[in-house]
Amino acid sequence: MARASWKGTLLADAPVTNIEIVEGNVYFPPDAVHNEHLRPSDKRTVCGWKGTASYYDVVVDGHVNRDAAWYYPSTKDEAKHVEGWVAFWHGVTVEQ
Fold first, then answer.
1. pTM over 0.85
2. How far apart (Å, rounded) are the C-alpha atoms in residues 74 and 4?
3. What is the 3-state secondary structure (H, E, C) of 48-66?
4. Would you say the C-alpha torsion 59, 61, 62, 63 has a positive or negative sign?
5. Is 81 helix (H, G, I), strand (E, B) or coil?
6. How far apart are CA 20 and CA 2, in angstroms?
7. Complete DSSP assignment for 14-80
8. What pLDDT is recorded for position 65?
């Protein structure tokens, strides 16, 4: 099982057969993510082959980890397999 957590709270979990690993980052399918801990962020970045990423702040018990999750709402053709999937960083623990 792959899991993402922060401050002892589970943010996402999925069987390892249901995740994607791209450039060393674990991407979780949308139905594996506990959205109640995510708050939309204004941050955007651009990847040359995936497209424009949107970010979420991770919120746990009033603590905010800004821009600690990202996803590609609409990808370029080469990255369709992770379109809408969520990855984590900035201190979020990801185990696989």
1. yes
2. 23
3. CCCEEEEEEEEEECCEEEE
4. negative
5. helix
6. 10
7. E-GGG-EEETTEEEB-GGGB-GGGEEEEEEEEEETTTEEEEEEEEEETTEEEEEEEEEBSSB-GGGG
8. 98
